[in-house]
Write a structure and sequence with these properties.
Chain B: Belongs to the ABC transporter superfamily. Chain B: This is Phosphate ABC transporter ATP-binding protein. Chain B: Keywords: ATP-binding, Nucleotide-binding, Phosphate transport, Transport. Chain B: One of its GO terms (cellular component) is membrane. The complex is a heterodimer of chains A (484) and B (274). Helices cover 74% and strands 1% of the residues of chain A. Chain A has 2 domains: 188 residues, no CATH class; 258 residues, Orthogonal Bundle (MetI-like fold). Chain A is mainly alpha-helical. Chain B has 274 residues and is of the alpha/beta class. Helix content of chain B is 40%, strand content 24%. Chain B contains 11 helices and 10 strands. Chain B has a 6-stranded mixed beta sheet, with helices on both faces. In chain B, strands 2-1-4-5 form a 4-stranded antiparallel beta sheet, with helices on one face. In chain B, a hairpin with a 2-residue loop joins strand 4 and strand 5. In chain B, helix 4 packs parallel to helix 7. Chain B is globular. Classes of the chains: A mainly alpha (484), B alpha/beta (274). At the A-B interface, helix 12 and helix 13 of A face helix 3, helix 4 and helix 7 of B.
Chain lengths: 484, 274
């Protein structure tokens, strides 16, 4: 029995429990004592008792049995070859999956050699890695039968649990039973676990980068990474010694912050002003056109902005500068300015849309109070509305800044991939994200510092944004002007 | 500011003496109509607002009294689709005239709202807001003085003098409303409009604000919208009764509450409708 079938069966049992529980509650209600909960709450509680433990069991069982199966395969492979290969159990598993897809009787009794088996598998559209060995076929067969046995055991176990839970839940139905509170508690638990998913994922992401980062720092000293001013990883051929590159973070970090700064200098004033216009001045007709249009702008993929920067804005700026300087251009076609401008335009809708909502949320009473004292509209906005909306606006700007720092495609196309360290906005520079992509693409040994540096960069970026967010929270808390 | 007020009082006293009566007309409504889009909310309201008196506007909900109040300092301008017809004058100047600057008008005709709405700033900054935007003071010392005087006039000074830089929103509801009154006073208006200023307050805070209104009428002309008959009787000298967008009757409060000309007024005051 597959996991999905078991899941469906459990749901069916849950539904039956729901109706049975509700019906029992209705039958018990003789009108003498006021029932504590309405029948559907009794039904829901019975259903939850039936479904939740069974599903939990199913999940634990499938992970546990999968791990056990892998271990068995591993042991068999080692027994056969007396050497441990990191990939052989993966090969066996894909072979097992392939055999399962063959027609009977080959799916239980396949040919004994790979040379015979391969064409059969190819006929089913299954291609296997070339170093799949003959001895793996019996192991794969055993794995299949074991997996199916585990599937049945797990499915039946889950079903049994579901039935037991349902019976228990239905038995529990009583006039003064507090089913409503119990259902409420389950709701609370569900909401809580939903909110922890994000946190746990963050922890997982950090951990997944942490080990590679440690491996990187065992080969390159943290000092030369964090304070190095030269980025030159040298894509040397594997094994050719003495080609230790230089992994200086400073040029990349500077480029990241520089481009983000230029982008924010464009996006924040323009976005904020357009938000003020839309929230405070625009008539309903104008607003109903401009706001969706701006939000549409936010939906354009960043690569499209990058193309615009590459083929239009960059060359245009270069030509303008050539005319201004009378000959040789002082703005390069790929420059910080180009990337920052285009990224800024990309971010305008983000700033304006978020700020618009925040400004609109400031109570009308604030505006009335200020206008009633003889303030003009713009005085009201500058002195009352924006200060009241400030915490939200800072939050919006930070969200925007994180997007600017994480942006890759625009930078690749508009500012290039050259890791310079310069203060001149007319030259090319690059960012951390671009280099992460650079280091991870291509045929590289995965354990060389050239690749591992990507993880160190990633974790650095993570902490940079983390520190920014914490700083922002502190600022917001300090300058908060509460209007309730 | 203080000097200005004293001058004003003197002038008013003089005007009374020369007129041989103790009443000076501060504002006048002449066939005032208000439309919200297609819907007419106010029909031909003729009314006189007397200087240094409290005029109460009463009537059931939706009768147009708040609408009328808001047209006295053109707060209705901020509502889309709102049109005001007829003529409203302040010291014989048409306030809807093109030559009138609405910002200046609102500095002369201040407003206190139903729900206390202090700005999310410190107590000091709340009161200093008006003087700052209108440039009424020359120095920090001047501004300090205006803030102190305004808070004193609003009977709030003693309660907040040690925490002027705490948030205004941290005060109790009644204190917040007196802060809003102080904020309105700080720009030295001539008329103060109050839109149900006590409806969000408890009885003790209400009593404080009512006391305050009584004191303020020496220096200001006050127009107050209220749903409480007792409040109207307690604080006002003149009462105007609105119903369905019409001004039913206007007269001295005492007469309105004891011997009104109109049956509708009688019925409303005695609680037979509304």
């Amino acid at each position: 029995m597959s996991g999905l079938t078991a899941f469906l069966f459990v749901l069916v049992v849950g539904l039956i429990a729901f109706f049975a529980g509700a019906a029992r509650a209705r039958a018990l209600d003789d009108g003498k004592i006021k029932a504590h909960s309405r029948p559907q709450y009794h039904g829901a509680w019975a259903m939850l008792l039936a479904v939740l433990p069974a599903l939990g069991f199913l999940i634990v069982w499938s992970f546990g049995s999968g791990a056990y199966l892998n271990k068995q395969i591993d042991e068999r492979v080692i027994a056969q070859t007396s050497e441990k290969s990191a990939v052989s159990d993966t090969l066996v598993r894909s072979l097992a999956d392939g055999i399962k897809r063959l027609d009977a009787p080959a799916n239980t009794n396949p040919p004994a050699t790979m040379s015979e088996l391969m064409p059969l598998l190819a006929g089913k559209g299954v291609t296997l890695a070339p170093d799949t060995q003959d001895y793996m076929i019996p192991i794969a067969l055993d794995a299949n039968s074991m997996a199916s046995r585990f599937g049945w055991l797990g499915g039946l176990g889950a079903l049994a649990l579901a039935v037991l839970g349902a019976l228990y839940g239905i038995r529990q139905v009583a006039v003064r039973e507090r089913a409503r509170h119990k259902v409420e508690r389950v709701m609370l638990g569900t909401l809580f676990s939903a909110s922890t998913i994000a946190i746990l994922t963050t922890v997982g992401i950090v951990l997944s980068m942490l080990f590679q980062t440690i491996a990187f720092f065992s080969e390159v000293s943290p000092w030369s990474f964090f304070f190095g001013t030269v980025w030159d990883p040298r894509f040397a051929a594997a094994g050719s010694g003495g080609s230790q590159g230089q992994f200086g973070l400073i040029p990349l970090l500077a480029g990241t912050l520089y481009i983000a700064l230029v982008a924010l200098l464009v996006a924040v004033p323009v976005g904020l002003m357009s938000a003020v216009y839309m929230a405070e001045y625009a008539s309903r007709n104008v607003r109903s056109i401009v706001k969706p249009a701006l939000e549409l702008l936010a939906g354009i993929p960043t690569i499209v902005y990058g193309i615009f920067a590459l083929v239009t804005l960059g060359p245009w700026l270069r030509d303008i500068s050539a005319v201004l300087a009378g000959g040789s251009p002082f703005i390069q076609a790929q420059s910080i300015l180009t990337a920052g401008l285009v990224m800024g335009v990309m971010l305008i809708p983000v700033v304006s849309s978020l700020s618009d909502d925040i400004i609109t949320a400031v109570p009308q009473a604030m505006r009335d109070g200020s206008l009633g004292l003889g303030a003009t509209r713009s005085e009201t906005i500058r002195r009352v509305i924006l200060p009241a909306a400030l915490p939200g606006i800072v939050g919006a700007i930070l969200l925007t800044a994180s997007r600017a720092i994480g942006e890759t495609m625009i930078v690749v196309l508009a500012a290039g991939v050259a890791a310079n360290l310069t203060a001149n906005p007319f030259e090319a520079m690059t960012t951390i994200t671009v280099k992460i992509v650079n280091q991870l693409t291509g045929d590289l040994e995965f354990n060389s510092p050239q690749t591992l540096v990507a993880f160190a960069l990633g974790i650095t970026l993570f902490f940079v944004t983390l520190v920014m967010n914490i700083a922002a929270l502190a600022i917001v808390r300090k300058y908060r002007e509460q209007y309730e | 500011m203080n000097v200005m007020n004293e001058q004003k009082i003197e002038e008013a006293v003089k005007a009374r003496m020369t007129a041989g009566t103790n009443e000076v007309i501060k504002m006048r409504g002449d066939k005032v109509t208000v439309h919200y889009g297609e819907k007419q909310a106010l029909f031909d309201v003729d009314i006189l607002i007397r200087e240094n008196q409290v005029t109460a506007l009463i009537g059931p909900s939706g009768c147009g009294k708040s609408t009328f109040l808001r047209s006295l300092n053109r707060m209705n301008d901020t509502i889309a689709g709102c049109r005001v017809g007829g003529k409203i004058t302040l010291d014989n100047e048409d306030i809807y005239d093109r030559a009138i600057d609405v910002v200046e008008l609102r500095a002369r005709v201040g407003m206190v709202f139903q729900k206390p709405n202090p700005f999310p700033k410190s107590i000091y900054e709340n009161v200093a807001y008006g003087p700052r935007i209108h440039g009424l003071t020359r120095s920090k010392a001047d501004l300090d003085e205006v803030v102190e005087k305004s808070l004193q006039k609003a009977a709030l000074w003693n309660e907040v003098k040690d925490r002027l830089h705490d948030a205004g929103t941290g005060l109790s509801g009644g204190q917040q409303q007196r802060l809003c009154i102080a904020r309105a006073i700080a720009v030295s208006p001539e008329v103060i409009l109050m839109d149900e200023p006590c409806s969000a307050l408890d009885p003790i805070a209400t009593a404080r604000v009512e006391e305050l209104i009584d004191e303020l009428k020496q220096n200001y002309t006050i127009v107050i919208v209220t749903h409480s008959m007792q409040q109207a009787a307690r604080v006002s000298q003149r009462t105007a009764m609105f119903h369905l967008g019409y001004l039913v009757e206007e007269g001295p409060t005492e007469k309105m509450f004891t011997n009104p000309d109109e049956k509708r007024t009688q019925d409303y005051i005695t609680g037979r409708f509304g």
